[in-house]
Write a structure and sequence with these properties.
Blueprint: H1 2-19, H2 23-49, H3 55-71, H4 75-85, H5 90-101
Helix pairs in contact: 1-2, 2-3, 3-4, 4-5
Length: 103
């Protein structure tokens, strides 16, 4: 998860600079984005570690992560999460989530 967060932070910085944000604004947005990604990443880990899979909680977490990643400029991974959220094959979904987030 750490590698994905760092990549996303770098994309966010470039994205925010291109929009014209000041460095102080970028620093604050990146700080908050990192915090939110870390928190939702921990939530995803908890969901995946439960004995009984809560599909709704899993899809809600994927949705939250998709929004965070998309807003920070990591559209490629955000698009993958949209595909995964719609997948009916739970086992494949879990395997792909673990691969994407290196869990």
């Amino acid at each position: 998860m750490t590698e994905l967060i760092e990549t996303t932070i770098e994309l966010a910085k470039k994205n925010f600079r291109s929009i014209g944000f000041k460095e102080e604004q970028i620093a604050q947005l990146v700080f908050l984005g990192r915090k939110d990604l870390e928190q939702e990443g921990e939530n995803l880990k908890r969901i995946l570690s439960n004995n009984e899979m809560d599909i709704q909680a899993l899809n809600d977490s994927l949705h939250a992560l998709k929004g965070l990643l998309s807003n920070m400029g990591n559209k490629q991974i955000a698009d993958k999460l949209i595909e995964l959220k719609g997948s009916d094959n739970i086992q494949l979904k879990i395997e792909q989530i673990k691969t994407i987030f290196k869990l």
